[in-house]
Design goal:
With 411 residues, the protein is an alpha+beta fold. Among the domains are: 129 residues, 2-Layer Sandwich (N Utilization Substance Protein A, Chain:P, domain 4); 66 residues, Beta Barrel (OB fold (Dihydrolipoamide Acetyltransferase, E2P)); 56 residues. 39% of the residues lie in helices and 25% in strands. It has 15 helices and 15 strands. A five-stranded antiparallel beta sheet has the order 7-6-5-8-9. Strand 13 and strand 14 form a beta hairpin. Helix 1 runs parallel beside helix 4, helix 2 packs antiparallel against helix 4 and helix 5 runs antiparallel to helix 8.
Length: 411
């Protein structure tokens, strides 16, 4: 293996790994100084000249000319007779300068140097990737799906660096195949067995925040501040925003004309419902806005236990709770209060739509009642079990269970 091969090998790493020139020279010089120390015992009297543009390398060794028989260290000194074999004009006390060729180290030393070189470059590259991504935590990155496994997906960025998107950091509706483009936020960067492990996320609140910054110039410019974001990835999100400029409506700016700004975000998040609300330090009003789209009749706060008792009309209860309880859960996370929902009681009980019981009664059963014109609780209770069995395709046992649920509503 020649010096040219070794340098070309290094240049190849430099080009692909994008390491700067000072680092290139420093690493290359250190590798050769190590070789010099092994061969001559010292590198103090050696000069290494590296041209990073074309890979040229020169090694020059300087020794002091001594009288014959007075040389004590062959690594630092040379006897006059030996020096005259190269240059007859040299005298005692002069510097004897000679060029050291890489081939003179021998094949084994060159192979070892190349291995050391490769090892140091890879180590530097790993450190560079770690430092780069450590500073980018919270930023959005775009990459290409390279491989999909059961528990995680491997994504490559523009420079070919490996990013890990765990299943737990994916939106439930996400489906990726090789070659797909994916956007996510840098969530965590760690060193695992000397290798940088870069975790990206599509479920972190920071991802939604960065999407808003990209879509809403007022947020990017600092005119609107995102106070807090809470999410149930793929289902619902609530974003509290505030504007320091009275002329700017923060909610309107975030949503955009006819929803133009928020539509792109919703599509990216696989149709996740996003509620944008005005932040306020008035807790009662904040909770009321957080439970949107439900309309609250009254609210009682207990600041010691951080609980809020919210009273609503019967037809607003399901809106406040939301599908799967997501709305009330997110409202609690957003405001910091445990929210308890109560149906507002009146002297004369109002009728309740059957849809209000969707959490307790299966949808297909409710549909059976609707087919015969029964769409409220009282309209069902008004008929006997026998009559309901006769008019629907439901079994007597099922009807009895439904009647128990509906009657308990008015007890």
């Amino acid at each position: 293996m020649s010096s040219i091969n070794l340098i070309d090998s290094f240049q190849e790493f430099k080009d692909f790994k994008n390491i700067d020139r000072p680092t290139v020279i420093s690493v290359l010089e250190e590798v050769f100084r190590s070789m010099l120390r092994k061969r001559f015992g010292t590198d103090e009297n050696c000069d290494i000249i590296v041209n990073p543009d074309n890979g040229d390398l020169e090694i020059w060794r300087t020794r002091t000319v001594m009288e014959d028989g007075f040389s004590e260290d062959d690594d630092l000194e040379i006897e006059l007779a030996d020096a005259h074999k190269i240059d007859p004009d040299l005298e005692v006390g002069d510097d004897f300068i000679e060029q050291i060729t890489l081939e003179s180290f021998g094949r084994r030393a060159i192979l070892a140097a190349r291995q050391t070189l490769v090892s140091k470059i890879l180590e530097l590259e790993k450190d560079e990737i770690f430092k780069n991504y450590k500073d980018r935590v919270g930023e959005i990155v775009t990459g290409e799906v390279y491989q999909v496994w059961k528990k995680e997906t491997l994504v490559l960025d523009d420079e070919g660096n490996e990013l890990i998107l765990p299943k737990t950091e994916q939106i439930p509706a996400d489906y990726f195949k090789k070659g797909d483009s994916v956007r996510a936020v840098v969530h965590k960067v760690e060193m695992l067995n000397s290798n940088p492990r870069i975790i990206i996320s599509r479920t972190a609140p920071e991802f939604l925040q960065r999407l808003f910054e990209l879509e809403v110039p007022e947020i990017f410019d600092g005119l609107i501040t995102i106070k807090k974001i809470v999410r149930e990835p793929g289902e619902r999100a609530k974003v509290a925003v505030e504007s320091y400029d009275d002329r700017i409506d923060p909610v309107g700016a975030c949503v955009g004309m006819k929803g133009s700004r928020i539509h792109g975000i919703v599509r990216e998040l696989k149709n996740e419902n996003i509620d944008v609300i005005n932040f306020t330090s008035n807790i009662s009003l904040y909770i009321q806005r957080a439970l949107s789209p439900a309309k609250i009749t009254s609210i009682k706060l207990d600041d010691e236990t951080m609980r809020a008792a919210v009273y609503l009309k019967p037809d607003q209860v399901s809106l406040a709770i939301g599908r799967g309880g997501h709305n009330i859960k997110l409202a609690g996370k957003l405001t910091g209060y445990e929210i308890d929902v109560y149906r507002e009681s009146t002297e004369e009980e109002e009728d309740v739509d059957l849809e209000e019981f969707a959490d307790e009664i299966d949808g297909w059963i409710i549909d059976e009642f609707k087919k015969i014109g029964l769409d409220t609780a009282k309209s069902v209770i008004a008929l006997s079990t026998a009559e309901l069995v006769k008019r629907t395709d439901l079994e007597e046992e099922t009807i009895e269970e439904v009647l128990d649920i509906l009657r308990s509503e008015f007890e």
